[in-house]
Amino acid sequence: MTANDNFPERNSIVIDSKPIQYIIRKSKRAKHLQLQINSNAMLEVVVPIRRNIPFPYIEKFLLEKKRWILRNVQKAEEIARKAREKSNYILFLGREVPIEIIESERKRATAKPGAGRLIVKVPIGRKDLAKRAIRAFYKKFARSILERLVREKASEMNLSFSRISVRSNKMQWGSCSPRKVLSFSWRLIAAPQAVVEYIVVHELAHIQHNNHSKAFWRTVQKYCPDYKKYERWLRKHGDLIKARTNFNG
Ligand SMILES: [Zn+2]
After folding, report:
1. Quick one: 53 exposed, middle or buried, by C-beta within 10 A (0-12, 13-18, 19+)?
2. Domain presence at residue 27
3. In principle, which of 35, 117, 120, 206 could form an S-S bond with 111, CB 3.0–4.6 Å?
4. Cα of 113 to ligand 1 centre, how many Å?
């Protein structure tokens, strides 16, 4: 048994008279102590397992990082609050679409668009299944929208790709493998279509340039002249998009 095994899972520290809850997460990969805000707006301290870091050192580290912590915890709480306020809507291609949950005599939960809203049908007494159905709806529509956009943009840019993969990634909106497999996070589909198109152009441009060189950005600009605006949009609203597409639990 090492000292690390004695770490409490949940803890709290008072910073500028504000009690801050945090979770300690042990990591095999981490090399140093790291701070993160998880998708539930909770502060996480990532502790490398391979280094025996004594608990008082962690508290000292948290106090050293108090500005970062206060700023980011506050930001995350604000985003979580905004997401809760909109829990009766889904964000789809930049539009707020109302959700209507209907209990029905069926075994499975489904979510389908209808009359300007998302109709979610759940078995009687099983409203808890709505989130899962909405998540499935996003994935399905993300795939069809992204497949269409990638085909359109690839032909416009005169590039070929091997296939598209749609994932649940929260850290990356898209990526392009050396084998020309384009991967996208289905969460991207909550963003306005122009932003989705920019990410598609960005990943396709990586087929030609496996880097972020000037030549790469010239290609992006040629097919998406306003790309800088969309980059800024994603930086500004990315966390909210992630919060609005968090259907776990
Ligand atoms: Zn890139």
Report:
1. buried
2. yes
3. 120
4. 32
Tens of pLDDT, residue by residue over 73-85, are 999 989 988 888 8
How many A from CA of 205 to the centre of ligand 1?
Answer: 8
Residue 74 counted as domain residue: yes
Distance 199 CA to ligand 1 centre (A): 9
Task: Indicate yes or no: pTM above 0.85.
Answer: no
Residues 95 and 53 in one domain: no
pLDDT recorded at residue 92: 96
Whether residue 209 sits in one domain with residue 148: yes
Residue 2 has what pLDDT? 44
What DSSP string runs through 161-221?
-SEEEEE--SS-SEEE-TT-EEEEEGGGGGS-HHHHHHHHHHHHHHHH-SS--HHHHHHHH
Ligand 1: centre distance to CA 203 (Å): 6
Q: Are residues 61 and 40 in the same domain?
A: yes
Domain that holds residue 27: 3-84
Structure tokens at 137: 């709806």
Asked if residue 67 belongs to a domain, the reply is yes
Strands, DSSP E only, in the chain? 10-15, 18-27, 34-37, 43-48, 89-92, 95-104, 110-114, 117-123, 163-167, 174-176, 181-185
State the distance from the centre of ligand 1 to the C-alpha of 195, rounded, in angstroms: 14
Measure 212 CA to ligand 1 centroid, in angstroms: 6
81 CA from centroid of ligand 1 (Å): 31
Distance 85 CA to ligand 1 centre (A): 33
